[in-house]
Write a structure and sequence with these properties.
With 374 residues, this protein is an alpha+beta fold. It contains twelve helices and 15 strands. Helix 2 packs antiparallel against helix 3 and helix 3 packs antiparallel against helix 4. It comes from Emticicia agri.
Length: 374
């Protein structure tokens, strides 16, 4: 009976996935003067992003995207319509019929920032995005001005003003998603914001927002499951085995996590340019010195791109700990550090027993209590 139940469950899941999917064809028509080297065209079928390979010649031609979408719309994103980079240097279009058509024309208006103009058939360029953009336009424009301020990186009041605008945008977007969770545009907006929100909210909090604001039928759909899987993959939970890494350290020797399997390992992801990271360093240095005799090894993993600046900073501040530079994010990627600082403690069995993010322990008070009990 159990085997029959399993087969029935798989059959229902496959049937639901097929029922939610549909085939869509989109014709891309390039007229004279359109340079396809400037264009990148991708599409999202509700499960994955795909890049459409454009032919290399610029002879006027018609190309076709054929896709099976598992979301209410096939989303096409076109990058390179502008003469120069803009705050959002791409345009998104949506197709929910069996076919659509996008024609590209060279833009002859020199006052216009668009390289090309488009003619659309069976394609939507607004299923909620105008409402979204108009709601946050004021803050986006104000942030664009602040980004041009040379004091942004050094003046605390300027940085706080920027962060305040960003927080207000986030609140407005959360409210929009709550009010419009039945619309595909806002379902997609939530999906796009998950990683960004994870800087301020834990995986559990984002999951609670998802369950509270999106109905069960949507959450069970293929697209809804894609969102759920993305949330579940946001961070390393306490109690899981720490991902192994092997990387060259400051002294040129290989630092391999497996070599510390009989020790507690305190790991901090940081960078010299990250102010909150630098503020944590005196405490981390104090803890490293205090608990070294109890078998605690402290490893600082930096994302600094400038090796000399990284080395000089360590020497200047006398940071007597193990140092690794993770420029390509090979360690950070497996440890799911979408932002820094992030601090972890691993026990002698290689299990993560503390995560500052999961514990919402910004001042590292809980970490100190755990170390005291070792």
């Amino acid at each position: 009976m159990q085997l029959i139940a399993i087969f029935w469950f798989l059959f229902v899941m496959c049937a639901n996935t097929l029922a939610q999917s549909k085939k869509i064809q989109v014709k891309l028509v390039f007229h004279e003067g359109v340079d396809k080297k400037n264009l990148t065209i991708t599409y999202d079928n509700g499960l994955t992003w795909q890049k459409h390979p454009l032919s290399k010649n610029n002879i006027p031609v018609e190309e076709i995207i054929e896709a099976e979408t598992h979301a209410p719309y096939l989303k096409i994103s076109i990058i390179g319509l502008y003469k120069e980079d803009a705050f959002d240097n791409n345009e998104d279009f949506y197709i929910n019929a069996e076919s659509g058509r996008i024609e590209f024309f060279r833009n002859l208006n020199r006052k216009d920032n668009l390289r090309y103009k488009l003619k659309l058939e069976g394609v939507l360029d607004d299923i909620g995005q105008n409402n979204h953009k108009n709601t946050i336009r004021k803050e986006v424009d104000e942030m664009a001005v602040i980004r041009q301020n040379p004091m942004l990186g050094t003046d605390e009041s300027v940085r706080m003003s920027y962060n305040t605008k960003a927080a207000l945008i986030q609140k407005k977007e959360r409210d929009l998603i709550k009010s419009n969770s039945g619309q595909f545009y806002y379902q997609e907006l939530f999906y796009k914001k998950i990683g960004q929100w994870n800087a301020d909210f834990t995986e559990k909090e984002i999951e609670e927002f998802y369950v509270s604001n999106f109905d069960e039928n949507f959450r069970k759909s293929a697209y809804g499951q894609r969102i759920a899987n993305t949330i579940a993959d946001l961070e390393l939970d306490e109690g899981t085995i720490a991902p192994r890494f092997s990387q060259k350290g400051l002294d040129g020797k290989i630092i391999d996590l497996i070599n510390y399997k009989d020790k507690y390992v305190l790991i901090d992801f940081w960078a010299t340019w990250c102010k909150p990271c630098v503020q944590n360093l005196p405490l981390l240095q104090e803890l490293a010195k205090k608990y070294k005799s109890k078998g605690v090894v402290t490893i600082l993993i930096s994302s600094d791109s400038d090796e000399e600046e990284w080395k000089n900073f360590i020497e200047e501040h006398n940071l007597d700990m193990i140092h690794v530079r993770d420029v390509e994010d090979s360690i950070g990627g497996t440890w799911k550090t979408n932002y820094i600082p992030q601090t972890f403690l691993i026990d002698k069995e290689g299990k993560i027993i503390y995560s500052a993010k999961v514990s919402k322990d910004e001042s590292l008070e809980k970490l100190k209590r755990i170390l005291e009990e070792i």
